[in-house]
């Protein structure tokens, strides 16, 4: 958007492409030129017949005085309308003082308000009906379910039902509900299963602080009591306990007793997934968003990684994406040689030094290499570094780590100084660990749920409707479990609005694994990981949402449609 000088009309933002040539008659006795009658050319405003203020009889007047940019008196507008003149840029209507004083801030506000609506209209394309929705690896901060049937069965759960839900969660036992429940209030199994689906595990736990989300949470944490910020001994104690919990989670993941977990820092989020989930047969870790400094630090520690979006871009231009993926798969299994590992590391980190020289080979073949100045090594390196920095803090900066490199990443994160803020409200506070199962040092927490009755407008009248709100860090398995429960309680018809933590939406990117995971082996290996078998089958598939997440879910007659 081009800038606007204060005090001018927005019509002056773009000058006219052509100026009307003034037709003059021979001078009359008074020596003043007159405007020739008739219509002005298309798209040009008539010039004012008045001379420039303060000018003499023989001096030319300013031809830019009235070009549709400055307000004209009513008499001049009447004369122009009678003569059939047209305003510049097709503005025929009389502009009121409010329109004349239209400010740049108002124009920017209008642009900001209109832009999301256009983007939403292009992106909100519903999917085809399906009996299952795709896996969404983003963390939801809020879910809002609406239905024509009441959610009153979710309120005032009895103490026995609450305890039974805890026991079912800890013992990883699941109840098979019927397809439709006629009286949800009388169904104890439904209420116990609902309580079970709200459980999650957290470390550290400080009741007076909201430890999720951590990115952008400084304002919410400001003014809270944080004695560890000025006590180094307390900081070391917190980090020591956090390291034990982090190691415990990774060991559970490697033993396939934990399906996945999140590490939420004040700058980035890490998703660790067990082998068999996300379309991969090895342990994977996704980090988003990243910076060039973090990637360089990982590279210096010997952590092999690659950036999925950058590899896709290079694959389209070089038609060699399959070759890159096959080389990376071989390296992740540990079968490559040292030289091949170094070459793969250069490819995965975006260092295409050989490609820079290939662009000048054709000049040598034609014998004109001396006439073309070749960029020096420093210029090429600066361009590469500038491109890498431009990706910082963006979804395209997501990094994927596979196989045994995830263990090296574990050690790197426990010793990384930038993992903990050194100043601000989060200073000295260890990252938040989120897991669907228990681990050492974890605290059991519950998602907050409440149901309310609302009035929904249908055509010209209002109809009774009901809503169920879930607040908290809703992980992928919880979203699937809640939808399964509501299918039974709401007769297979409800809708959901999902509010995602945006930095985690990019976790839905595909990892490009060529090997197909068999569901039979998956159920055998991860049957004791603590989540429902149906949710496990869903999370085992390769992600298909890219860097988007599910925004709305519509369920009708037990079939799903969704928008991202």
Structural class: alpha+beta
How much is the radius of gyration in Å? 33 Å
> How much helical structure, as a percent, in the residues?
25-40%
Summarize the main sheet: 7 strands, antiparallel
Query: Proportion of β residues?
Result: 5-15%
How many DSSP helices?
A: 18
The strand count comes to: 13
Number of domains: 4
Terminal CA distance: 28 Å
- Order of strands, main sheet, comes to 6-5-4-3-7-2-8
- Overall pLDDT, averaged? 75
Shape assignment: globular
- The residue ranges in which pLDDT falls below 50 over 5 or more consecutive positions are 1-5, 29-56, 84-123, 312-354
Output the keywords.
564 residues; single chain; 6-stranded antiparallel beta sheet; 13 strands; disordered N terminus; 4 domains; alpha+beta
Task: Explain how this protein is built.
With 564 residues, the protein is of the alpha+beta class. The protein folds into four domains: 1-10 and 59-118, no CATH class; 124-198 and 447-509 and 546-563, no CATH class; 203-351 and 394-443, no CATH class; 352-390, no CATH class. Helix content is 34%, strand content 15%. It has 18 helices and 13 strands. It has helices at residues 74-83, 97-100, 104-123, 159-171, 188-197, 218-221, 232-254, 292-300, 308-318, 321-332, 338-348, 353-358, 361-366, 377-390, 405-415, 476-489, 519-525, 533-540, and strands at 140-147, 199-203, 260-264, 269-273, 284-288, 399-402, 432-435, 443-446, 448-458, 461-474, 494-500, 552-556, 559-563. The strands form two sheets. It has a seven-stranded antiparallel sheet with strand order 6-5-4-3-7-2-8. A hairpin with a 4-residue loop joins β3 (260-264) and β4. α5 packs antiparallel against α16 (476-489) and α16 (476-489) crosses α18 (533-540). The radius of gyration is 33 Å and the shape is globular. The relative contact order is 0.17. Mean pLDDT is 75; it is low at 1-5, 29-56, 84-123 and 312-354.
């Amino acid at each position: 958007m081009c800038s606007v000088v204060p005090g001018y009309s927005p019509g002056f933002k773009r000058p006219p492409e052509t100026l009307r040539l003034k037709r003059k008659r021979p001078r009359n006795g008074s020596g003043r030129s007159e405007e020739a009658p008739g219509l002005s050319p298309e798209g040009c405003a008539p010039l004012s017949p008045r001379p420039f203020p303060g000018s003499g009889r023989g001096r030319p007047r300013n031809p830019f005085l009235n070009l549709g940019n400055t307000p004209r008196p009513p008499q001049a507008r009447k004369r122009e309308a009678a003569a059939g003149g047209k305003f510049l840029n097709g503005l025929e209507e009389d502009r009121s003082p409010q329109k004349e004083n239209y400010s740049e801030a108002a124009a920017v506000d209008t642009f900001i308000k209109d832009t999301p609506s256009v983007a939403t209209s292009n992106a909100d394309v519903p999917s085809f009906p399906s009996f299952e929705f795709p896996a969404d690896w983003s963390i939801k901060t809020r879910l809002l379910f609406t239905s024509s049937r009441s959610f009153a069965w979710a309120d005032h759960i009895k103490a026995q039902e609450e305890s039974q839900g805890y026991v079912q969660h800890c013992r990883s036992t699941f109840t098979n509900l019927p397809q439709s429940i006629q009286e949800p209030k009388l169904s104890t199994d439904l209420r116990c299963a609902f309580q079970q689906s709200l459980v999650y595990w957290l470390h550290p736990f400080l009741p007076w602080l909201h430890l999720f989300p951590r990115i952008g949470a400084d304002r919410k944490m400001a003014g809270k009591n944080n004695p560890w910020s000025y006590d180094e001994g307390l900081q070391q104690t917190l980090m020591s306990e956090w390291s034990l919990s982090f190691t415990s989670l990774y060991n559970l993941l490697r033993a396939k007793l934990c399906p996945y977990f999140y590490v939420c820092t004040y700058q980035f989020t890490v998703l660790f997934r067990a082998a068999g989930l996300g379309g991969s047969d090895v342990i994977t870790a996704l980090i988003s968003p990243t910076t060039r400094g973090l990637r360089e630090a990982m590279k210096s520690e010997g952590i092999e990684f690659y950036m999925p979006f950058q590899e896709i871009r290079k694959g389209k231009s070089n038609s060699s994406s399959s070759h890159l993926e096959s080389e990376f798969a071989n390296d992740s299994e540990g079968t490559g040689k040292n030289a091949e590992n170094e070459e793969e590391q250069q490819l995965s980190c975006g260092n295409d030094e050989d490609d820079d020289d290939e662009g000048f080979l054709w000049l040598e073949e034609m014998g004109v290499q001396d006439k073309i100045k070749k960029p020096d090594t420093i210029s090429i390196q600066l361009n590469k570094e500038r491109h890498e920095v431009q990706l910082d803090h963006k979804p395209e900066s997501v990094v994927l780590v596979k196989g045994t490199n995830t263990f090296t990443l574990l050690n790197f994160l426990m010793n990384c100084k930038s993992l903990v803020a050194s100043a601000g409200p989060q200073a000295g506070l260890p990252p938040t660990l989120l897991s669907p199962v228990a681990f050492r040092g974890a605290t059991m927490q519950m998602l907050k749920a409440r149901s309310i009755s609302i009035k929904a407008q249908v055509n010209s009248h209002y109809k009774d409707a009901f809503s169920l709100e879930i607040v908290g860090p809703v992980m992928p398995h919880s979203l699937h479990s809640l939808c399964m429960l509501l299918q039974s309680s709401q007769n297979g018809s409800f809708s959901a609005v999902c509010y995602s933590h945006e930095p985690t939406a990019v976790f839905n990117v595909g990892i490009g694994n060529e090997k197909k995971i068999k569901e039979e082996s998956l159920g055998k290996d991860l049957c004791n990981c603590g989540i429902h078998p149906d949710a496990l089958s869903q999370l085992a598939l390769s992600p298909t949402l890219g860097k988007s997440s599910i925004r709305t879910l519509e369920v009708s007659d037990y079939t799903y449609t969704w928008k991202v």
